[in-house]
Every structure is written in C-alpha cells, then in structure tokens.
Predict the 3D structure of the following.
Amino acid sequence: MNILVVLIPVSVFLGSLGLVACIWTLRHSQYEDLEGDAARILLDDDDAPRGRAPRNDADAAAGADASQTKET
C-alpha cells in the first residue's frame, strides 16, 4: 500500500504532462493541414539527398579509390 503514495502522484503528473502537451499542439496549429500531410507521404521526392556528396575533388577521388578496392 505504501507504493501507492508514489504511484498516484507520478501518474497524475504524467497525465497532466500529456494534457499540457495536447493543449500545446492544439494552440500551435499542429493539426491544421491533415489532408496535405496524408497526400505528402505518397509523393516521391526525387530531390532528396541519397548520401553525403564529396566536398572537393580529393574526397571524390578517395571515394572512387575506396569503392574499387575489394576486401578479402
């Protein structure tokens, strides 16, 4: 029964924290464009970066050398 002295305040705190987070999202217009978000997930982003681009010619050459060597 003594554990309830700890568990009840912790659960009330976590519940109120969740309520505050929900109210914050409502006031900051997080749910305004639900249809746009649903459609955006279906779009194919061809402009998305696939990896780190080489910064200069030395990095590009080092990457080419590393890809040509095989580890045994």
Q: What stands out?
A: The helical segments are 4-27, 34-40, 57-68. The chain has a mean pLDDT of 79.
